[in-house]
Each structure stands twice: as structure tokens, then as C-alpha cells.
Amino acid sequence: MRGGYFLLGLATAAAAASVDSCPGYNAGAILSSRSSLTADLSLAGDVCNVYGDDLDNLRLLVEYQTDSRLHVKIYDADEQVYQIPSSVLETPSGQHGSSSSSSDLVFSYTTNPFTFAIQRRSTQETLFNASGLIFESQYVRLRTSLPENPNIYGLGEDSDSFKRQTVDYTRPLWNRGAAFLPPLQSLYSSHPIYIEMRDGQAHGVFLSNSNGMDIKINKTTQDGQYLEYNTIGGVLDFYFLSGPAPADVARQYAGVVGTPAEQSYWTYGFHQCKYGYEDVMMVAEVVYNYSQANIPLETMWTDIDYMDLRRPWTLDPERFPLHKMQELVTYLHDHQQQYILMVDPPISINDTSLYATAKEKGLFMKWDNGSDFVATMWSGAASYVDFFNPNAMDFWSGQIGSFFDDESGVGVDGMWIDMNEPANFCTYPCSNPIQIAIEGGIPPAPPAVRTTWDSLPGFPADFQPPSTSSRRLSTRSTGNMTGLSGRNFANPPYIPATGDGTLNAGTVYPEVRQYDDYTMYDTHNLYASQMIAHSRQGLLDRRSSERPFIITRSSFAGDGAKTGKWTGDNASTWANYLLSIVQHMEFASIFQMPMIGTDVCGFNDNTTETLCARWAMLGAWYPFYRNHADISSNFQEFYRWPLVAAAAQKAIATRFQLLDYFYTAFHQQTVDGSPTTIIPLFFQYPNDANTLDISYQFFFGPSILVSPVTEESPSATATATDSQSATLYLPDDLFYDFWTGEKVVGTGSQITVDNVTYTDIPVHVRGGSVIALRSDADKANTTAQLRTHDFELLIAPDTNGQATGSLYLDDGKSVNPSFSSEIGFTFDNGQLSVNGTFGFQTSCQVIRARVMGTSSTKSSNGFSSYTTLKKGLNEGWEAKINQ
Ligand SMILES: *[C@@H]1O[C@H](CO)[C@@H](O)[C@H](O)[C@H]1NC(C)=O
Ligand SMILES: *[C@@H]1O[C@H](CO)[C@@H](O)[C@H](O)[C@H]1NC(C)=O
Ligand SMILES: *[C@@H]1O[C@H](CO)[C@@H](O)[C@H](O)[C@H]1NC(C)=O
Ligand SMILES: *[C@@H]1O[C@H](CO)[C@@H](O)[C@H](O)[C@H]1NC(C)=O
Ligand SMILES: *[C@@H]1O[C@H](CO)[C@@H](O)[C@H](O)[C@H]1NC(C)=O
Ligand SMILES: *[C@@H]1O[C@H](CO)[C@@H](O)[C@H](O)[C@H]1NC(C)=O
Ligand SMILES: *[C@@H]1O[C@H](CO)[C@@H](O)[C@H](O)[C@H]1NC(C)=O
Ligand SMILES: *[C@@H]1O[C@H](CO)[C@@H](O)[C@H](O)[C@H]1NC(C)=O
Ligand SMILES: *[C@@H]1O[C@H](CO)[C@@H](O)[C@H](O)[C@H]1NC(C)=O
Ligand SMILES: CC(=O)N[C@H]1CO[C@H](CO)[C@@H](O)[C@@H]1O
């Protein structure tokens, strides 16, 4: 494993050509049982040593784990090659009782050279056909042939098309801070799972590998259509998932990486943030202005502005002093609102006491020679916490516990974790991160301290500028670093097409060490996962019974089990408004990270009134609904324009009506991974080939089809009375216009909805649904108040006059709620029955119900008159409903 280190550059072109000369492997010593198969793979000829050295001896492990899940792993016989530590992502191993004769997936192979194929038993179709195995010290390749123009989804994070391009496409995965979300480059997260659709049937392929990689999809005359994995290390650890419905693949994937974390009820309220709120007074003003504008603000956020010179775990003593922060938190909590602060992972060297403590305990990532690695971050020179160190948990949890202490610190309600790709502003080779920070003006000079602040009605009268000192928090823990390795981390021979042309741009360098002999070369894509896990545990240590709410920027496969995510630094563009729909379908339905949101109205650049209005309407159908802007962008709180305020009021009221419906849908996904949150159309209609290309419509929960306006406003000076028409696709199914109740028969073609104003968005209810709406949702100022409102049922019968729906109720916040109800609604031609389990006692009633589609003319109201019910939700009942 030591050749070719100094040949970079000159050798690259020549080397690339010789990939074709690699000999492949022969299989021998094959042992098969009912439910597994193992073999030895040995290099079948002369080494090619293209990107490092060929490994002579590999092992193959095949496990029929369940009837729908086949595990295939190719790894080095010595087991020295890096593998994802099970402490970070524990994927299932062992056979779990399926067998080669009962599995839906059939494994077959050739020995000389070794190739393998995966077939679907029921159709005999070959789903994966692996050839071209190369296994070198710094490069692993495997290719599968595919049918022409395959329908492939997943493999993110990305800003590319929803359905993957099938020719000349490279998807690099190497977590990377990438403002403006450039297409065809690495973005913040890595999720190496894809779903492929063939003739209405779906299957999934997950490669559990955290190394940087390129996944190429191409069609050439020589090789036909294929998908090819090119990783810079790790092993080939595949989970094949048989579907056959897309929703089955989602559940099967959850069976590998875990089901998503349940979120508290309040997290579905509306959130506001901006980078550039200059002091706690300005933050308070935003809270106040939202309330004056009658727009229900649920949670207020503060970006790194609150830190003293951008140093994590500090407060700016003049602009965000502790006692004012505490008053703000008290105010918010008294009004049933929440507060969240951003936390970055590195410790500033200028934060001398905390830095010394962490350094002494050995908690930082290190150079090979044992010196602490120093990056340049928002605070200037800073060292990243090494979360592999077993003492990092104590340290991190201690920081969370003391800094966010409800009595003596800032009692936040969740954590926003950023820069965890991890990011580094010091360009390689960075000899002096301190100097780079000084030259780069980092941290920037803080804004002038205000000398007079107007008092805000409702806030303490002395909500006035302070003069006192900041508070620093101390820490405890121990740590150690060991290990060397023979690979060329600094100049790897194969470099994924990240967009930078190198792996050391904008991040902690690949040669930097982590505890237990890990190097960032292998663990880079897991840095965020570790920060997420430690933050979640820290939040649990602090408030043990409450569901921890975390929003991260970077992530890896499986992190949805612990965190939510926002899609990072998008821009205030129409293209990014549309892109959010694609990203949310990917994260929610394919990557199992359904608490997903995009900065509403856009982060970078200045938004416009009409874009922000459309985005306020779209954002209400995001699982995580937050308006956020950059420091260099104009203010864009919803109350800044009357048109946007009106859009937001309607959007939030509608979201509130549907909040328990969505809470129920989200809960279902946390139980078994069912894709019930943001759902692509082809998941719902797998046999309708037209749905395979639909990128900008989605289901919000199983019954609500959202079809946002997809064309940019024609006029920059539009007013609330202006409108546009929207063209949308309706599958062959019965729908109802959510707003008018009118029946709309889908025929598998496009329809046009006219007069979609800036305070409107086309929404349809799928026939066959019963939806429990919170009544008077427009009168609730927070989700806490909403939870006291009664319900009313919206009934959308199918063509047989039948409909069903469900409602999950619990206390909305406990990690393991002691009481919950799973209530089923069944409607059959006017007869409604309510049954289920009723563990959660509530005084909320179902006060009334109405049926959709009693008229099919647009001009008249399509709803039936209300049937008054006034029935409780603590036991089953039946009722007759007027139609
Ligand atoms: C599998 O791939 C090989 C090329 O590697 C090709 O010759 C063969 O036809 C493929 N088989 C199927 C069933 O796709
Ligand atoms: C796809 O194949 C073409 C033709 O061989 C080649 O020029 C191109 O580089 C390939 N693209 C990728 C992403 O591999
Ligand atoms: C709050 O509203 C007042 C009155 O419209 C305005 O002057 C002020 O700039 C607003 N402040 C913020 C931070 O939105
Ligand atoms: C919402 O209304 C309730 C009840 O009137 C009140 O206690 C609470 O402070 C209000 N919250 C906000 C954010 O206005
Ligand atoms: C941080 O510390 C370095 C080294 O001691 C020093 O040069 C730099 O001026 C400090 N920066 C700030 C903002 O205090
Ligand atoms: C360790 O290596 C780094 C990077 O090459 C270098 O900056 C640092 O000075 C070295 N430390 C020691 C103690 O040699
Ligand atoms: C680190 O661990 C190694 C082996 O476990 C040990 O020899 C060494 O003394 C430790 N170093 C520190 C600084 O604790
Ligand atoms: C946003 O608009 C302001 C003026 O309203 C301007 O100063 C600023 O440069 C603009 N920002 C961007 C990113 O275009
Ligand atoms: C509720 O009623 C429906 C329809 O009668 C039935 O399918 C379902 O099993 C019932 N559920 C419970 C929990 O009783
Ligand atoms: C009710 C309404 O606003 N109708 C308008 C819908 O759009 C068409 C074409 O733009 C107008 O002619 C209607 O007046």
C-alpha cells in the first residue's frame, strides 16, 4: 500500500487510462449456507496500481437478511481498510432468517473473473449486475449495468434534477459548504442511496461507505448504460432493497439506517432568523413586530451574531448580555414561544481558557506529529473538537448543560449546528491560520453598540443596554490521539469531482487525525454525524424527557434518526424556490431525514416581494418552515411587506389547520420509515409513468397534493390582486380542490388552475381521505394555543363514497410519551365511524364534519353543509354525516 505517492499530476492522465487494464478478482473457497455465502477473492492478474496499490486478497460476504433485504459486502481479508465505525452508524449484520430460496432478491455470481448479479425473483429481472471490480488502497470501483434511460433518484445532497441525468453524469459525495448550492458539485451532506423505478416497481441500493466518492451514470457505445461507484477508500458494503413499491424501499432503508427522530409539536410552527440581527434588542423587536403584524411566530433564532467575536460558547457582553438574553427567553417562554441559537464545532484559540482546557484534555483533531490542528473559522484561528475522542461527549454535553442551563445560562429549546462539513477558511497549505484570519478580517468588527434602546411594550421596562461583562463557561474531560497510516492523504491519486479539484479546500485537511487512528480522509463525511450524536445526547442530558430538536447543515446516511436539517445557504432566486421541492422529496422520502427545510424567501442575495410571498406560501408545506437571510441581504421578515404578511397569515393558518394531520404523518414515518411526509408523486402512483418526471409537485402527508406556482412572477411590482395561472399534473384519481371543495377528476394529464394570487397556492385532497383539521386555526397565535382547539373533519370520498384517515395524539414533546391515541376514521357513504386506541385523554372534541365535492362547478362552494358532532376523542363513536 505504498506506491505512487509522488507521481501526482504527471501520472494522473496516464494512470486514468490504465484503469481498463486492471485484472479484476477470481472467487474461490466458496461456502454457502441457506442464508449466507462467503468467498475469497484474489487478484486475477498483474497489479495495475492506478490510484494506490491493488489489494491481493478480498473477502465476499452475502447475507440474506430479510426477504426484501440482501447484504453484500466486499472487504479486505486483513480487515485493515477503514470501515464506518458502528459507533457512528450501526447497520444490520447477520442473517436474520431469510434464505436464498425465500428472498425476493437472488444473488448469483461468476468466479473467474468474479462478477455478481442481483435478480428480483418474481420477475427474473436483473436489478444490479456488478462488474469491473477494482480494489486499491485509495480507490475502489464497481459498476452495474442498467437498462437504458434508467429512472434513478437519490444520491445526494445535490442541487441537480430530481430524476438523475443518465448520460455523462457525476454525483460527487464529499461534504462541503457550498453557498448558492452549485449544481453538479458536492454539497453539505452525503447519502449514497438510490431508488430505481422499472415498470412500476422500485428497488433501492445503499452503499454504506463514508469515503469521498464519485457516482457516475453514463451511457457509452462500448459499455452501454451503467452506474459506477468510484470511492477513495473504504469497503463495498451494499444493502439491496427489493421494494417493490417505492414506499417499501423507504421502509427497508429505514430498516438499515434507522427511522427518523420524532419531533415536538412546536417544531412545526413558523420560525424566524437572520444573520445580522445586531443585538438582543433587535431580536426582541422582530418578535414584537411579528406579534404586532398578527403573524404567528413560533420560534425565534439567532445566528452567530450573539457570540463574543464569533466564538462559540460565549455571549457578546455588550450586544447579547446574559441577563438580557435571559429576559428574552423568559418573554418567549411566557408567550409559549421558543428560542434557538447556532453552535459551531470549533473552539477559538482566543477563547484562551476554554481552549486551554480542551487542549489539555487532548480534545482537538491533530496533525500526524501530534500537534493540534488549527483551522480558520468565524472566530479566527480555532481547533475542531474531535468527537471520536471518548471524552468529547462529557465535554460537549458539559458545554450544552452549562451554557444553555435554564437557570444560569440561555435556556434554548433546540440547537442549530453549522459549519460541520467541517468548514475551514484557511486554504491549503495553511501555514498560519492566525495570520489568515487577521488578513481576512475574521472575526469582523462587531456593529456599534447602541447607546439607547427604545423599550418595547410587553418586554421588561428596563430592557435597556447593559454594561456588564460576558460569561465564559468552563469544561472538563480528557483525551488522546494515536496512529499513523501509509496512504497519501495530502495528495490522493483519485479526487472526486467535488467542484474544488481537491479534497483540502474549505475544510479540515484529509490528513488530519482523529482519535483511534482515524483520519479525516476516511471520516470527513461523518464529522457532522458525530456532532449531531453528541449534541443530541447533550440536549437529552439537559432536559431528559424532551425530544431534542436539532437542525444541522451537514449530514450522512442515518442522521435523520437524530436530527433535522436545513438545506444551507441557498439564494433568493426562483430556481432555488423550485429546487427546495426536489431537495425535500429527496431528504424526506429517500434519505429518511423528513425534518427538512429550506430558507424561505432565500438566504443569499435580496429577495423580492413577490418571490417572498410565493415562498411564504410554499414554505408552509415544508416540514421545517423558517425564514432566514444572510447578513448582506435586506431584511425579509414576513411583516416587511403587506402582501407577504397576508400570504404568511394565510399560509400559517392553513398549516395550523393541518398540523395534527402532518404530525400524524410524521409520527408514522418515525414508527416504520413509511414515506408519509413529503412524498414524490411516483411514490403514490408508481404505475403512472408520467409521475416519474414530476419534480415540482408533492404530497404533504399521504392525502394532500401541493402544486406550487412554478413560473416566476411576470411583474416585479405585483400587488395582492395580481394572479397567475398554474399548470399541474393530476394522476388518474379523484381529487378535490382544498380551498373550494370542488371535485376535480384527475385523468393522468395536466390541468390549469387560473387566478392563483400571491396569497394562494393550488392544493388538492386525494379522494378517499378523512382529515382531522384544527378548527379556528387562524385564531391561534402559537402551536401551544392551537393544541387547545377542537377538531373538525374534512371528508373527501373516493369514487365508491368511502374514505379513511387517522389521527395520532400524544403530549407533543416527550421522548417516550406514556399516553398516546391512534384514532381511525372510516367514512362510508354518509356513515362515519371512529375507532382505535385512546390512551391520550383530551378535552378537544370533533365539533363538526363536512364532505367535499358536493358540487363540481367552480363558481359554487363544493363543500356540503356542516354536520354538527361535538364528540370526544377519548373513545370510539359513530355518526351520520350530511352529504
Ligand atoms: C451484466 O453485465 C455484463 C457486462 O458486464 C453484460 O454482458 C450482461 O449482459 C449483463 N447482464 C444483465 C442481465 O444485465
Ligand atoms: C461518459 O462517457 C463519455 C463517452 O465515453 C465520456 O466522454 C464521458 O467522460 C463519460 N462521462 C462520465 C461522467 O463518466
Ligand atoms: C419593527 O417595526 C418598527 C415599526 O414598523 C420598525 O420601525 C422597526 O424597524 C422594525 N424592527 C425590526 C427589527 O423589524
Ligand atoms: C397567545 O395567546 C395566549 C392566550 O391569549 C397568550 O397567553 C400568549 O402569550 C399569546 N402568545 C403570543 C405569541 O402572542
Ligand atoms: C487571537 O489570538 C491571536 C494569537 O494570540 C492574535 O494574534 C489575534 O490578534 C487574536 N485575535 C483576536 C480577535 O483577539
Ligand atoms: C506538526 O505538523 C504541522 C503541519 O505540518 C506543523 O504546522 C507543526 O508545526 C508540526 N508540529 C511540530 C511540533 O512539529
Ligand atoms: C495516548 O495513548 C497511548 C496508547 O494508548 C499512550 O501510550 C499515551 O501515553 C497516551 N498519551 C496521552 C497524552 O495520554
Ligand atoms: C440588497 O439591497 C441593498 C439595498 O437595498 C444593497 O445595498 C445590497 O447590496 C443588496 N444586496 C445584494 C446581495 O444584492
Ligand atoms: C377500525 O375500524 C376499521 C373499519 O371498520 C377497521 O378496519 C379497523 O381494524 C378498526 N381499528 C381498530 C383499532 O379497531
Ligand atoms: C375571479 C377572477 O379573478 N377571474 C379572472 C381570472 O383570470 C382571467 C384571465 O386572467 C380573468 O379574465 C378573470 O377576471
UniProtKB/TrEMBL annotation:
PROSITE patterns: GLYCOSYL_HYDROL_F31_1
Biological process (GO), any one: carbohydrate metabolic process
Tagged with keyword Signal: yes
Occurrences of domain Glycoside hydrolase family 31 N-terminal (ranges): 63-212
SUPFAM superfamilies assigned: (Trans)glycosidases (SSF51445), Galactose mutarotase-like (SSF74650), Glycosyl hydrolase domain (SSF51011)
Start and end residues of each Glycosyl hydrolase family 31 C-terminal domain: 677-771
Alphabetized UniProt keyword annotations: Glycosidase, Hydrolase, Signal
Domain Glycoside hydrolase family 31 TIM barrel: 261-665
Reactions that this protein is recorded to catalyse: Hydrolysis of terminal, non-reducing (1->4)-linked alpha-D-glucose residues with release of alpha-D-glucose
Domain of life (superkingdom): Eukaryota
Keyword S-adenosyl-L-methionine: no
InterPro entries according to UniProt: Gal_mutarotase_sf_dom, GH, Glyco_hydro_31_AS, Glyco_hydro_31_C, Glyco_hydro_31_N_dom, Glyco_hydro_31_TIM, Glyco_hydro_b
Single GO molecular function: carbohydrate binding
Segments crossing the lipid bilayer: none
Annotated EC: 3.2.1.20
Cleavable signal peptide: 1-16
Family recorded in the similarity comment: Belongs to the glycosyl hydrolase 31 family.
Protein's name in the database: alpha-glucosidase
